[in-house]
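Posting this for the archive.
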Amino acid sequence: MARHKEFDPGEAMKEAMEAFWERGYHGTSVNDLLAEMKLNRGSMYDTFGDKKSLFLATLAEYERQGREAVAEVLNKPGSAKAGIRNFAHTAAEMCTGEAGERGCLALKAALEMAPNDPEVAKWFREVTHERESMIAKVIKRGQAEGEISAKLDARATARYLMTSLAGLKVLGVSSPSAREVRDVVNLMLRVLDE
């Protein structure tokens, strides 16, 4: 008979995510994880596998949360153009203040791990591709409704928006003002009117 877990795996995963977010993969030891998650080694390994498996699981959870948040903003009824603007401004808010200084877990993981870890590189490519697809779909809807220029390549435009927002997330660690970030986003969004 399987023993009942005496801890909440979701809460333990959240603590692991925070540790990786703060220290990175290489800067977080198994002992750090055990302390943050308040688990013994056996419980961690039985539930999550090794450190790398736990890291990949935290990235998958981070991506799931992000995908749901992006879909909620982009798929609201009404104007496609307004949906993209709201998405860009919502994402930009995370590039200022404490959230900006903290940075994006996905970007941190990509910068730290992707050059030497094919599994993380593949994960990051898939996440980026999916986000581009979500935005391109809304751009196409806006083009069909006549509010976004039909001259634009929807996929390339989505990639441009994602690349620009990623740059803002990297810039976020330098504590830009809300106005500086807003100015960049407003300039970036002009592409929809070309």
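The CA atoms of residues 110 and 124 lie 6 Å apart. The chain has ten helices and no strands.
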